[in-house]
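ingest -> validate -> predict -> emit
validate: passed (alphabet ok, no gaps, 329 aa)
predict: started
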Amino acid sequence: MSFKTFDLAHDVASVISAINEVVSVSSSIYANDLNIKFFTNIASASAGTDLGGYWESVYDSSPTSSLSTALMDFTYGYHTSSLYNLPVTVSSSQNEKIKVYRMMASTLLGDPNAQFVINNASQPQCFFIMVKRNISKDEIKKGATSLVFNTTNGQFSGSDDGAATSFQQGPGGDYAPLKYNATGSEVGQVWYNAGVVIIPDGTYPASQTWSGTVNLAQAEASSSINQLVDGLRRVIDKVNFHNQTNLFSTAYFCRAENTEFNYSSNPTFVDDNQRIRVTSGSNILQTRTYITTIGLYDANDNLLAAAKVNKPITKSPDNEGIFRIRLDY
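emit:
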């Protein structure tokens, strides 16, 4: 058996490759209350007023089914500086909305008191769509996210075209704006590593009908998070993105030069006089071997991995070979 030590500067390389899947979620899934899991938030131990949950979870079928898969969460929050942060009725979930905004600001901006800036303006009121990790995988692919919005002014899309080369970085990872019909003003923001899409309330006209006869401005002032999210689910027509799995690999280049690996440790390789045996019926007197397996060993000669070639490779003093072994993890 022959061994050779790697030249770490030339024989070992780290490789990162991406595997993507197309994910398209239509309103027929999340606008249907049968696919939504609701959460109850009681005001206090003695009060029976249901404030609605902090968020709603969307499933691809009934949440009670063992075969259903959670896709994403929808929620809403506002900053303490919001014009809607006023003494209001308990049912408006005022404290809950502030907590949601602070949590998202802390996670993505690194400061619970910070505000999201979209279209060069602070956005104190925002909706948040949080894609489940089992759906977004390691992250959302840059340049492949789009949402279709329905408003009283018509339908339009918000997409991150070009984000693969123009994204920015923040405490919460990489992010980029969603632009009106791909090239216009910013109507949202997507945080790729966190799997979060942010939609400021300014994306919709304040007079936008939200629930029954209540418009968006009225809903933000007096409705619970659940009621606001119910409206959001019905005015977004489609959510499209590509998830991404980052596959980390190490490539080992095993080089067999012309003077190497031309002999075998098999005792039948030589005769009693230590002369190389010539294969029966062959007129080739030059030594040669057949490479079938390549092993990777640690510093203590412990076998860590073995790679098999698809067919024996002839090796002799008049040829050389390079074998690329890739380990994924």
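The CA atoms of residues 12 and 252 lie 5 Å apart.
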